[in-house]
Fold:
Amino acid sequence: MESSLPELPADTVQRIASELRCHPTDERVALHLDEEDKLRHLREYFYIPKMRDLPPIDLSLVNKDENAIYFLGNSLGLQPKMVKTYLEEELDKWAKIGAYGHEVGKRPWITGDEKITGLMTDIVGANEEEIVLMNGLTVNLHLLLLTFFKPTPKRYKILLEAKAFPSDHYAIESQLQLHGLNVEKSMLIIKPREGEEILRTEDILEVIEKEGDSIAVILFTGVHFYTGQFFNIPAITKAGQAKGCFVGFDLAHAVGNVELHLHDWGVDFACWCSYKYLNSGAGGLAGAFVHEKHAYTIKPALVGWFGHELSTRFKMDNKLQLIPGASGFRISNPPIFLVCSLHASLEVFKQTTMKALRRKSILLTGYLEYMIKHYYNKDKAESKKPHVNIITPSNIEDRGCQLTLTFSAPMKYIFKELEKRGVVCDKREPNGIRVAPVPLYNSFHDVYKFVTLLISALDSAEAKS
Structure:
């Protein structure tokens, strides 16, 4: 969880401005950063929406032929250009050879998911045998909890963070009810301190130390969907396991966003979706991780045919030969069209490394933070002028690419004004607007233009007040 940067983003911005003999907020700084960006070519592998095609756009405010400012990869990643090609390959194969497609081609339908699993290893920091691509995120979470959550009279609680994503909250709630446990007593929720938005690592570790003997499973998100906080996965894992707990993570907002080292960190289990930073399309094929230390000691509670060893699967003798580890959790044959879209995105990831993407991301988001603070620092803002507050941690090690912004002016109005101007982001209750410059396809000039449009939206809000 290190930044891997020789200098902080603000220092980089100021240094470049000095070299260019301009103000740090000058457009030339953004253009220079893009020129120096060794990953800028990756943007060409994605379709960038045009202003004219966005439903909420006000064409009187924008150039309809320009690219939109797409800062919503934290919710749905952009479409890789090769998706259509890969889908057409499988449709063509189906049309021409029918059932023979199960065994031939570069993505045989029986093993299509396994053919691309190796492309995930750098992204999550795991061995190929520890990764499985299957189902949707919450289905995988349920399958993992059914296996790892085995409550006893003394150890029966599940620890999670406050305001966990609803799917996690509901999954935990239903797992507790499945075991006949009292939800209020068994769901241990840790909240930020009074008046704070972010959970302090020391507070999490304190709860684990205090309550650990009664906790069966710790389930945290890797990056919090609302605040954008990147939790200290190795510290939480180490503390939880020291107290005898299984430790797992929902990595929906972390995978493809931050560096992960699940194997080295010793995480027991994890799951993730693939339609956010992994760009596999809405409802894309999800993934799961089970550490190799559990390969022969932990078995899935629910078993399906595709968890059976491939070498004897088609003997059809109903004598289970379970694949050790993560692949044993597979239940059904892989949905090949979902495999295609994920394959197209993972091949783009393969052209770089998570370390390189993370390095760019830190600077990209740091530049965004610098620009917002310059124009809308609450401390120096005029009393009547709208100000912007960033609730995401300022420490670069404690966040991914997303910044969550709150405003002194009405959030819903500002959001509408941003949409009119071709900014694609989202709002989350109670009062946050989430913006996520993604290093795979966003540029520093995107950030510059976003800030310009944010200024325009806030000026409009100010005029209305």
Q: What stands out?
A: The mean pLDDT is 95. The longest helix spans residues 354-376. The two ends are 43 Å apart (CA to CA).
